Amino acid sequence: MTKQRDRYQVSLKALVTNEHGEVLALNAVQSGSFAGYFDLPGGRIDVGEFTVPFTDILRREIREELGDIAVEINEVPVAVGRHLIGAESEKSEGESIHVMYLFFEVRYKGGSIRTSNEHSGFRWLDLHKHKLPDLFKSGLLEGVLMYTKNHQK
After folding, report:
1. Helical H runs in the chain?
2. Buried b (16+ CB within 10 A) or exposed e, 43-72
3. What is the reported pLDDT for 31?
4. CA–CA gap between residue 41 and residue 66 (Å, rounded)
5. N or C: which end of the chain has fewer CB within 10 A?
6. How far is CA 34 from CA 5, 38, 49, 145, in A?
7. What is the spatial distance between Cα 137 and Cα 125, in angstroms, rounded to a whole number?
8. pLDDT, average across residues 89-98
9. How far is CA 88 from CA 43, 44, 55, 96, in A?
10. pTM of the full predicted structure?
11. pLDDT higher than threshold 70 for residue 67
């Protein structure tokens, strides 16, 4: 019997932190898979970006979702998570999509944050002062829990 390997799309997520150690959380739109929860800046690797450094891809995603802000990106991932986009989602084109998240710590250095139409606003959160399952779900929750476990105050 031939062993079947799963296929994943890879999404890079930014844990954007400010000078107080708070993380930038984006309000998910009500029509998306994270409705009622927060999202983090980032997104999937595009066709043609296979050899592009992860930090460059993440910088592009941050610019698209937050505007032209100044950031410093740690090039080593700090957490991982998995997310399932169900076949019923309009983004899935009728098939379930398995997404692997790689989380990177990003320092916010300044500039005016302007969220794109992918999100309905933002909030700075001290992750150690909240019940994280109330704020995040799926692979985002998995990654944020891993991050907070390894980055105690």
Report:
1. 54-66, 132-135, 138-150
2. bebeeeeeeeebbebbbbbbeebbeebebe
3. 67
4. 8
5. N
6. 27, 7, 26, 17
7. 16
8. 71
9. 20, 19, 32, 8
10. 0.91
11. yes
